[in-house]
# Entry
Amino acid sequence: MGLTVQEALGLPVLDGASVAAGASGLSRSIRHMVVDNPAEPLAAAGPDVLVVLGARLPQADPAGCRALVQRLDAAGTAGLAYRRTDGAAPLPAEVLAEADRRGLPVLALPAGARIDEIVSEVLGTVVAKQGQALALSSRMDHEFIGVALTGGGLAEVTQRLAVMLEGAAVLGLGPDREVVTSAGPSDDVAEISEWLWLLDAAADDALAELAPSRRLSGVRADQIVVTPADVLADADLSPADGILLVPGHHQLPGGVGEYAVAPIMAGDQRHGWLVAVHRTGAMMLGAGGVLERAAVIAALSVIRLQAVHSVELRFQGDLVRRLVGGSVGHTERTLAYTRSFGWRLDGPVAVLVTATETVADAAADPTRALDVLDRLADGWRAALEPEVAGAAVAGLATEIVTLVPLDGRTPEELSAVVSAVTSRVNGRLRRVGRLLGTGIGRPAGNLSELAEAHRQAQRALGVGQEIHGGSAVTHFDQLGVFRLLSLIPDSTELRSYVDEVLGPLADAGDADSADLRETLRVLLETNLNVAESARRLHFHYNTMRYRIGKLERILGPFTTDPTLRLNLLLALHAARMRGLDQLARPPLDGGLALPHDGLEALV
# Structure
């Protein structure tokens, strides 16, 4: 940390000094001050160096003067200083003009000023500020390491920041930029939470363009690579529109007050932001660095909580696996375990099985598949929680199992709730080419009945997806005859049965056969009511009579033979359930390898 040129001019030893040129650059930082060697003019110039001229600079042409100032400016020189003398200034007029244009401060010191005293005072002040910075660093380490060692999280970090940055409102934002926690003056916190404007895309792009070593404000504020003003200008927005989540220490729009920002990063993944805002004044020097230290501790807390959450999910998954597997021993002890997780399984419970259509992929990484399933389960749990309190959700192998306390819900009411949740989740998954379907078992009155309810839910899921597609929500009691057909594991046997009963109408690729199958289905559903069938199919009555005759020539006298009608109806159901009456579906992608951005959108 250094001393700005403006601050240096306020020192008693520089009383009487004036700015000869470059007044716009008084915010430049001074960390070194040297007296120039006349034998090697300006050889000591460099970053943050205030050079005191020891002699008049040699005359040069205007182009050489401009090149000299350009070199000093590019090197980050804090400024030039000279002692006033009678006659012309020791700097050519062209140098002064170029310095003024570039904002390179040139200071005229009093004629009787002692250079050694000036150097001592300026460097002493710089050392004092650096001592304050070291003390601040030590205090930060003490404060935030204490938070880390005691298991504190974002809320504790935010509280400590509000104490350190006295007068500032501190907001802890989540990954979606929602306000998770806050501390500081309550009125300011409420106001800032309302007007805090977050420019998502532009701020993210600006952060992505920074090199990893410069994503935090480890460089001087006047040398930061991307500033909020730059981003706003690129987005064609006014600073009055709000503040940006660009790392660093910045002025508020309008120049009144300051704010500092630091992302909470763990590797390349951002888990949130820390934002400190002082509405009416300046924050302590180094506030950006304070937030960076705090963000590291907050990131450690997030990683720790994720690890704990992962272990908890494994324990919960093992317990759910035992419950639906029928391996529960001591019922009261098991119920005590479920209550410790916040589950309410003491009364009637419904078992849901949720899954997505997949095909086996021997080359897929099983660890990746489990991680995807866990993330799907997290998204499903988040969507279900607002609707049902106390439900148990766990990802098991290739399915998500949910134990839902019924709380007096009828099967229809439960199906409506599950359909609403499935619709919300699929709304986010649809863009990555996946849909979840759910099967619902009959209510289980106690823990020992969960295994059978789980098998019923699995059967309802499988049959529902075969009949209605991948996003179907199917209750076991709604299966009807499909429940019996689902017990036949051999699709070849069903295919043979369909071919034998339907004959030429079993051809899934023939449009005329499909049309006649639909006519047959409607006739059987209306109990051979010709007028009603014609109305449903939008045919003339005589056309329907003609079609009935054609069907009987192909299939036999089904209008007078009830056994044949039963066989035909079963064959149509079997073809529909196993997709035997449809063209082959397009192949699915292997496994559960959903794109990462789809999972992020879900959870």
About this structure: The two ends are 42 Å apart (CA to CA). The longest strand covers residues 269-278. The mean pLDDT is 76. The chain is about 45% helix and 15% strand.
